[in-house]
Amino acid sequence: MDFLKHHTQISLKWWVVLSVAVLIGILIFGLNPIGYRFSNEVNWIKDRPGIRFGKYGIAYTNSFFESSRDNIAKPNSFSIELALKPASHQEKGTNFILVLHNGSDRSQLLIWQYHSWIILMNGDDYDHKRRTKRIAVNIDLQIPKTRFLAVTTGEEGTDVYLDGRFVGRKKDLTLQIPNGGKTRLLIGNSVYGKQSWQGDVYGLAFYGYALAARDIKHHFNRWLQDKNFSFAEKDNPIALYFFDEKTGVRAFDHAGGKHLLEIPAKMRIFKKKILSSEWSGFKFNRSMIEDNILNLFGFIPFGFIFAGTLMKLGGTFEKHYFFITVLFCFTVSLIIEILQAWLPSRSSSMPDLIFNTLGALIGAVILRFFIVSNHGKSLR
Q1: Which helix (H) or strand (E) element contains residue 310?
Q2: How high is the pLDDT of residue 5?
C-alpha cells in the first residue's frame, strides 16, 4: 500500500520531531492566556472618585464581617448602598459585582449582573435550577449611566432601590451574611477570578441595620449633589469606601479603617476550580458544540503522530503503543487543565479532558486502521 510504504520510509528522527512539534502546539494553544496579561485590570478614575474594572480585575479585603458582626443590630439585618456604572458590554454568564465569601459558594452573599439584570442572592444557584430565593431588578443598559443601588434586608424581607426609588420587594427572602471562617469582601469578580464584571464603582457603604426608605432617598439626593459617599458617615456604617485615593493599591475604609480594600497590581485568585464538571449545566448549543469539536479534533493528530512514533521505536513501545498513547495524551491534557485553573481567561474542565483523551484515542485508532490492519505490518 502506498500510504504504508511512504510512512515506513520516514525516519524515527522525523517522527519524534513531528510529535514534539504537535505537543508544543497543543501546550501553546491550551495555555494561551487569551487576552489576560497577568495584571489586575482595576484603575483609579482620575476625574472623580471611583475605580474602574476591566475584563480581568478584582478588589478585596483580607477579612470583613469576621470583625464587624458585632456591629449588626439584628441578625441578618443590614443594608448596602453602591454607586456604579456598568459597562455596556459584559461577558456571558455570571458577572460578580460584589460578593461576601467565607470559603463556601453555597453560603456566599452575592450581587451580580446578567445582561441588564442585577440579581441579589445567597449561594451558587446561578441558573436557578434549585429555585434558590433571589431578587432581581432590570436596569436600562441602552445608554450606560451611573446607578445608585440600595438593598435592605431583615425579618420583613428584602427591598431594592434604584436611584432612591423603590423598585422591588421579596417578602420571603432574607439575605444572609456568610457564617464561619474568614468572610472576605470582593468587588468585580469571584474568588475563582473567572466571573469578572466590567464597569465603574464610585462608592460603597455597609450598614448593620435596615435603612428606611426616606434615608435611602436622602442619601441618593446627597449623592447627586456631592458625587461622593460622605453622606454615610453620620449613619454609623460598618464599612465605607469613598474611592477618592486616586493612587496606590488600597482603598481606605472611612468607617473606622478596619477593612482596607486591596487593589493589587497583579490579579489575585483565591480558589482554584480544577476539572469542574459542566454536565450539570449542560446546554446543547453552538458554543458547546464548537468547544467540544475543537477539543476532540485538536488531539486526533497528536494521537496519530505519537502512536506512529512509538511504533517506530519498536520493542515494548511498539507492542503497547495504543495504551501508552492514550495514557500520555491523557496526562498532557490533565496538566493543561490543571494549569488553566490559574488563568482567569481559561477554565479547567472535565469535559475538555474527556474529549481531548477521546481525540487521542481516535488518532491511535486511525493509525491502527491504516497501518497495522494492512497486512499486519508496522512502521519499521
Answers
A1: helix 286-313
A2: 47
